[in-house]
Structures are given as structure tokens and as C-alpha cells.
Amino acid sequence: MPDLFPRVAVIGGGPAGLMAADTLAARGMRVALYDAMPSVGRKFLMAGRGGLNLSHSEPRPAFVARYGERATRIAPWLERFGPEAVRAWAHALGVTTFVGSSGRVFPTDMKAAPLLRAWLHRMREAGVEFKMRHRWLGWQDDAHDRVLRFATPAGMTVIDADAVVIALGGASWPRLGSDGAWVPLLAGRGLRVAPLLPANCGFETTWSEHFRTRCAGQPLKSVALAPPASGGAAPRWRTGEFTVTDTGIEGSLVYTLCAPIRDRLLADGAAVMLLDLLPALPAERVLHEVARPRGSRSMSTHLQSRLRLGGVKAAVLRECVGPEVFANPARLAAAIKAAPLRLTGMRPVAEAISTAGGVAFEEVAADLRATRLDGVFFAGEMLDWEAPTGGYLLTACLASGRTAADGVQSWLAGRRG
Ligand SMILES: Cc1cc2nc3c(=O)[nH]c(=O)nc-3n(C[C@H](O)[C@H](O)[C@H](O)COP(=O)(O)OP(=O)(O)OC[C@H]3O[C@@H](n4cnc5c(N)ncnc54)[C@H](O)[C@@H]3O)c2cc1C
Q: Could you identify the atom of ligand 1 that is nearest to the CA of residue 18?
């Protein structure tokens, strides 16, 4: 007897795959979810350690702009499942959310586990089968694109699905399951995959030993960073905070500038950022205070008393400019407002919060169906987009899972009709 309900294989149990599975099961499809790990949602649970920033409450145009060059591709996903839908989804699972002072959206309890538990419970009730410890190894030679090979503890197994959603994540934090091992599998099937690169990552610089031992781990608060502008344009400053690390810098302000820094590093081998240590003060005021007579006081004491510039901020300034600058008030004032911070490398993708690169958008239709494969859809971080931290990653992953599920449903309906 033929199956009455289509069988959909979802590979990857992160937020993108889970959203696809949940949506399809709720619409009456038979869904099996495969994951290489012993349990699903490990990176989602890790995100819970930071309070689980689910989304952001800023107005939609600003929200969409966070996806940079991919904004026009991702905007339609957010039409289906945007920040408001993310909150409604959590509420439907019994988890209330709140908007923090920065506009970020979190579960009220700042935890991921209760939300994941309720979500999985709903999926099991809807009949989703969870096939753990199933590592996808690619396609069966000479078979159609929905015949999939898995390594399991019991040996190799091959399944034949009616439609497939692949949502294997990027390559950051590989111990949580997403290790990027899928890249050669897709490339071998003729799909274009942009190299996986660190996003929301730390960058390296050459701190002096003295600075490193004294300042690593300390935050630089209320500062601004800008990539150097070319062609005489004014630098585009971003204000926020970041942390000094043993090897360089990391933190939210650095993450917002990750793509331009990375591009510059890849092109030139180094990226000189401009650092404004006192963004709240105009340059003239800084010069006025620096140039005041200081009597017998040291320049350090002078900067501390006139501008409250001390501690790690004063120390980082000494890392960026030579001692001769401290002898010249005009040059010193200019350096306080735009100190050159030379970055020499990026931290490895395994340490990054997320991954840039992935399945090229030219390979997928608007509904995330792979145009060169038959009945295969992609979702989540494994597609070639990136976004800063702030809830934009999870929102787009969930939205892409919903988009792929909608695509699967229409594609299956088209085949039956
Ligand atoms: C420390 C940390 C904190 C974060 N905090 C936030 C936050 O607060 N807000 C936010 O928006 N984002 C955050 N993120 C990013 C967010 O968690 C990810 O963007 C998101 O989980 C990606 O979802 P995904 O479904 O695409 O992939 P993943 O969540 O990576 O899931 C992919 C799944 O595929 C499985 N898999 C991989 N390869 C195979 C294979 N060959 N066979 C079978 N299964 C396979 C993996 O085991 C995994 O379960 C954080 C990330 C990290 C590392």
C-alpha cells in the first residue's frame, strides 16, 4: 500500500532543522529528523548560557539591514517568520520573553533548556521521529537526490525520502555538532559553497607582554571603532564595547565590524582599525584638555585628571602609538580620537560564534529549494549569510527553517497535483 503521507527527512537538529521539522509535522507530514550527535539543539543550549538572545526589537528596516549584503535574500524569510513571530513561537511553547535595555529579546528566564524541552515535546506529540547518532555521509551513487546515506552505531543505512531539508549549521564550536564536514559532500554534488570563515569572532594583534599580562580580560567600554575609510571619506564609527584578550580583541563592538575587518585581512594580511577612546567628547575639546598646561604632572596623570582617560584605555593608547606622540599635544589628542589599532589575523572559525560562507544563494530558489537537486532544501547557518550577535542569527535560522518547510509543502503539493 502506498504511503498516504509524504516522508520528509530533515538532517540537522539545530534551530533551523527543528523549525522545519516542527512546521512540517504540524501540517501532517511524516518527519524524521537525523542528527550526528546523541541529542539535538546543542548550540542552541550553549546560546542559553549567554541568556539566549532570541531576537531584537528594533524597527524592521534596521533589523533587515543587519544581514548586510544578504538583506534582500533574507527579508522574505522574515516576512514569513520575523522577530514578532519568534516571540509568539516562544510564548506558544509556554516561555515568555522580554525586551532588554539594548532592545534585545530574551526568554524571561534567560534559559534555552525549558524552551527546547517544550519544543521537542510538541514535535514528538506531532509524530516527529528523532534519529540520533545518524551522521549524514552524502548521497547514494547513481540514485536520485533524496536517497541519503548515514553512518549509525549499527552501521551504514540508506533512506529514501520524498523531500529533504538539510540544515547542518556552520563550522564554529564543532564539538557541539556542526563541523562543516558537509562542504565536500555538497561540492561533490556540484553545488557552489563559499569557504566557511569565522564570523562574530576575535581578531589578533601583537600586544606587548606588559600590556597583555596587565590588561587581558579587561573591557574597553564606551569606545568607538571604525575601519579606515578610503578616498577621503569620513570613517564610519560604531560605538560600544569590546574586550582585550591574550591575543587581541573580541566582543560585541568587534563582532559588528567582523565582515569588513575579515575582508581587509584576507585582502591585505592586516587591518588597521581606528579606535576612538572618548567618543562622547568632540576632538576640539580633547585637544583643548590635552594642551592645557600640566606643570610637573606626568602625561598619564594629566590625561586621567583632565579627560578621565586612565586604566586599560590609557594602556591601549600606548600600544597603538609610540612615545613620541605623547610628547606632542596635537598628535596625542588626534590619537585619542583615532588611534590606529593594527589587527594581524582572525581567530579560528572553531572559536567563532558563527560562520560566514556556506551554500551559495545562487544554488537555491527563494523557497530555499536547491535548484540543481530534486526535492532538496537548505536552511540555517549553512547558507552563505552572516549577521552580528543581537538575536539576528537565531531569528534568521528559525525563519529559514520555516521558509524551507513552506517550500517543501508547496513542492510536494506540486508533485501530487
Ligand atoms: C556560544 C554561542 C552562543 C550563541 N548565542 C547566540 C544568541 O544568543 N543569539 C543568536 O541569535 N545566536 C547565537 N548563537 C548562534 C546560533 O546558536 C547559531 O547561529 C544557530 O544555532 C545555527 O542554527 P542551525 O540550525 O543553522 O545550525 P546548528 O545549531 O549548528 O545545528 C546543526 C545541527 O546539524 C548537525 N549536523 C552537522 N553535521 C551533520 C551531519 N553530517 N550529519 C548529521 N547531523 C549533522 C549538528 O549536530 C547540529 O545539531 C550562538 C552561538 C554560539 C556558538
A: 25
